[in-house]
Amino acid sequence: MSAVTVKNVRKAYGDHVVLDDVSLEFSEGEFVSLLGPSGCGKTTLLRVIAGLQSFDSGSVEFDGVDMTNVPAQKRGIGMVFQQYSLFPNMTVRKNIAFPLEAARMQRADIERRVDEMVELIGLEKHQHKRPKQLSGGQQQRVALARALAPRPRILLLDEPLSALDAQVRSRLRDQIRDIQKEVGITTIFVTHDQTEAFAMSDRIVLMGSSGILQVAEPAEIYARPSHREGANFIGRRNDIKVVASEGRLRWEGLFDLPSPVPDGEKVRCSFRAESVNVTLAGGARRSNSVVNEWAEARWVPARVRTRTYLGSTSSLKLQLAGEEKLKAVVTGSLAVHIEDDSAVDVSVDAKDINVYSKGRLVAVGSEQVMETYEGATAA
Ligand SMILES: Nc1ncnc2c1ncn2[C@@H]1O[C@H](COP(=O)(O)OP(=O)(O)OP(=O)(O)O)[C@@H](O)[C@H]1O
């Protein structure tokens, strides 16, 4: 049985439909991210699950029990928001104890539970401090401990990392995931940051302007975004318009794939910037008699228009012989040695090319995709 079931939920603000017949299931102990751009309805969905948001139709169940008419405070959920929302005049311990006192737990039990929580978040040394004496990351750990202290059955996190700077953010991201695994609590996490979603989740619910696009494990979302909108949201991609001709999709000598659509129809061939293989012109790849993973690829000449050095990688804008542009990312020594105006050779593996027709994934390389999100047949 699912820990949380959302069934056919619809929510509109006036005539703006934000959740349109949304159905989802969350398993016990699972960490699921609701990922998508601003305004796609992530927070609304989380608030519906929490019982903080009324909705027009559908239902929400926890462990098979209908929660639709159960108020938020009786649902057994813990929540952490973007804003720290700690009580500024209370110590760390007092903040964590607060929901336990409100629930009229015995004093000795409260002390024991607070000890346990302080240890869980690793703030033993800071437990007698007030929030303003703590860093942002530490405050969020206290907020997490306060949410977990009453042992809720579900943890809901609404962009808890957004207010933090990059370094603290990635550390806390890992800490939250560790704590969640240790406690084993079903967790739903709202974010618009794909790195966070990929790093933390067992599954991702990818949302877009028209609702849920895809529900899948991170690796599947990464490799095979079911919709063009999702593909463009989750990474820097080349998104190339190609018209099918003679049963093929051909572009600039770089790829030549069997077409999944009739001649004359337009598709988008989409591949990640990091899927573009790049070598300095005349480099190793010329020895193609050597069988290597690129042996099947078609190499074409290009020139570096701009190179943005990012340390471990360089992001490139390339121009092909026919003036067409291409985005690429290179790593290692190439990232250092490549320069503006360098002559390079480029290729893309067919298996890295996703073909979208009318916004939906219809083929990966030469392989047609028959089914997309939840069984809907691709157009
Ligand atoms: N109380 C409200 N009244 C009217 N419209 C609202 C209300 N709350 C949210 N909306 C609208 O509903 C849509 C979804 O909002 P929601 O906050 O769920 O999106 P989100 O994906 O969480 O975005 P963000 O990441 O910016 O918080 C937005 O267009 C928003 O403007």
TrEMBL record:
UniProt cross-references to InterPro entries, sorted A to Z: AAA+_ATPase, ABC_SmlMolc_Importer, ABC_transporter-like_ATP-bd, ABC_transporter-like_CS, P-loop_NTPase, Transp-assoc_OB_typ2
Gene3D superfamilies: P-loop containing nucleotide triphosphate hydrolases
Enzyme Commission number, as recorded: 7.6.2.9
Enzyme class: translocase
Lineage top rank: taxon: Bacteria
Annotated Gene Ontology cellular component terms: ATP-binding cassette (ABC) transporter complex
Record keywords, A-Z: ATP-binding, Nucleotide-binding, Transport
SMART domains in UniProt: AAA
ABC transporter domain sequence ranges: 4-234
GO molecular function: ABC-type quaternary ammonium compound transporting activity; ATP binding; ATP hydrolysis activity
Keyword Nucleotide-binding: yes
Any Pfam family matching the protein: ABC_tran
Name by which UniProt lists this protein: ABC-type quaternary amine transporter
UniProt source species: Leucobacter denitrificans
